[in-house]
Design a protein that fits this description.
The protein is 42% helix and 17% strand. It is of the alpha/beta class and 305 residues long.
Length: 305
């Protein structure tokens, strides 16, 4: 394993997305599969079962999806290091920030898993009590973002590009948005199959639980360059990240700004499994010489950078 950084490379770590039953079966062949036991113990969740035998319905539940995604991304990153590839820049989306922090060395795998266990359970509790959800908006006209401020109980949750955002809100607020999205300046509004109003004030109770967990974590140092969702800026200290991870639960994911913060010297992206979404988003934000999104263990192990 090399300690030399690839200065022109950013590693992307996905957030909670679509997982299916058996999503981790092939990853059992990785020599790093033994980390699953550590992740399970730290999080209090049987991650091996989630990745191999659990039903798709179980895997997509908020708390399970978060830890399962983290496990796959972490194994993928360890495989990347085995190939002597160590990206200088790390950028996660929502949950993916925890994966990025573990990759940077600021957090151990066990502490990352512990935090995600707390975060996922707390977000699930919020989701079951607030009756909120999320909607993707595309094709915003001039003034469309400002028009969203006229809605009650609707908040911007993700700014993923110049023409794509996601909002969170109460059921009533989102119903109002869906009924008049074109009037508000948005060409398309698509409900997302998620269990709650993430990255909004409706997640405040979960923020309190995460804060308590963050206070009991052992933080390290890093030479990696980490770019935060909350403000799109570079942060590399433990004190900064304790605050950022807390604020992230109730603040918009500024993925557009974070991607634009990458210097032009960063010419390649590689997205950790389950990959694809962030590669698509970054491609629409700026141009890179190459973008890789290995989705299987074999593809990752055969990478040639």
């Amino acid at each position: 394993m090399t300690s030399n950084f690839s200065e022109n490379l950013v590693c992307l770590f996905p957030g909670q997305g679509s997982l299916a039953s058996g999503a981790g079966l092939q990853w059992q062949e990785s020599k790093h599969w033994n980390q699953i036991g550590n992740i399970s113990e730290a999080s209090g969740i049987d991650v091996a079962s989630l990745l191999t035998t659990a039903s798709s319905e179980e895997v997509v539940r908020t708390d399970n999806a978060q830890i399962a995604t983290f496990a796959r991304s972490t194994i993928g990153y360890l495989e990347l290091l085995d190939k002597g590839i160590r990206p200088r820049y790390l950028l996660g989306h929502s949950l993916g920030e925890f994966s990025a922090l573990v990759a940077s060395g600021l957090l151990s795998i066990e502490d990352g898993a512990k935090l995600i266990g707390v975060r996922g359970a707390a977000m699930l509790r919020c989701a079951t009590t607030t009756e909120g959800s999320m909607v993707a908006l595309m094709g915003g006209e001039e003034g469309a973002l400002e028009n969203l401020k006229t809605l009650e109980n609707v908040w911007i949750a993700n700014i993923n590009g110049t023409g794509q955002i996601v909002v969170s809100g109460s059921r009533a607020g989102l119903d109002d948005l869906m009924s008049r999205n074109k009037e508000l300046g948005w060409k398309r509004a698509t409900p997302l199959p998620v269990g709650g109003a993430f990255h909004s004030p409706l997640m405040s109770p979960a923020q309190d639980e995460l804060d308590a967990a963050l206070a009991n974590i052992e933080w390290r140092t890093t030479d990696s360059v980490l770019i935060a969702n909350v403000d799109g800026n570079v942060h590399t200290t433990a004190q900064d990240w304790k605050e950022l991870l807390s604020r992230q639960l109730t603040s918009p994911v500024q993925f557009l700004d974070a991607t634009l913060t990458l210097p032009q010297s960063v010419t390649q992206t590689i997205e950790m499994p389950p990959s694809g979404v962030l590669t698509g988003l970054t491609k629409r934000i700026r141009t890179f010489d190459s973008q890789l999104a290995p989705s299987t263990l074999k593809e990752l192990q055969e990478l040639d950078l």
